Amino acid sequence: MEQTYLEIGTIVNTHGVRGELKLLPKDVDGSVLAACETFYVDGRAVRPRFPRVHKGCLLFRIDGVPDLDAALPYKGKVVSARRSDLALPEGVYLPAELLGMAVLDAETGERLGVIGEVMAYPGHDVYLVRGEKEFMVPAVPAFIAEINLPRDTMKIHVWEGLI
Asked: What is the Cα–Cα distance from 159 to 60, expressed in whole angstroms?
C-alpha cells in the first residue's frame, strides 16, 4: 500500500558524549537513511546532522541536543521518514508498503489473496500470501510480474505446485 510515512527504525541508544543518537534501521540500509534530509520522531520533524553508518546503525545528531543528557530521552523512540525522501532504488519496496496488498494471477487476473507477511532471508525476501490457501512466493523476477503501489496490487506468475 502506498504510504506517505514509513517507519525506518528505532533509536536504540546514544553514542558518545556529544549528543549523537544511534538509529537501528528497520528494513532499509543505513546508507539510504544517511541521505534522508528529514526524520520524524513523535510526529515532530528533525533534521539529521552529520549522519554516518557505523556497525549497521546510523549515527546522527539533531539540533537542540548538545550532549548526552539531552540525547537520553530519545532512546527507544521510533523514527519515520517520508517515502518520497527515501532514495530507494527502482523496484525496491519496504515490507510495510506490501503488507495487505492484493495478490493477483498475472495470467488470469484472479485474486489469490493478500500479502500477510514479508519474511527476510539472506538470498531474497519471501511473501506469505493468505487467501483460500496460504502459500509463499519468492520475491524474485521469475515469480513477481508487477508491483503497483497506487493500485495496491501485485501480479505473480503462478507456477505448477506454487499454490
From this structure: 46
The grid coordinates of residue 134 equal 496460504
Radius of gyration of the chain, Cα coordinates, nearest whole angstrom: 19
For 61-69, which contacts have Cβ atoms below 8 Å and span 24 or more sequence positions? 61/18, 61/19, 61/20, 61/21, 62/19, 62/21, 65/19, 65/21, 66/18, 66/19, 67/17, 67/18, 67/19, 68/14, 68/16, 68/17, 68/18, 68/19
d(CA 113, CA 131) in angstroms, rounded, equals 4
User: Measured between alpha carbons, how far is 3 from 65 in angstroms, rounded to an integer?
Assistant: 30
pTM flag (> 0.85): no
pLDDT in tens, 25-53: 998 888 899 999 999 999 899 999 999 99
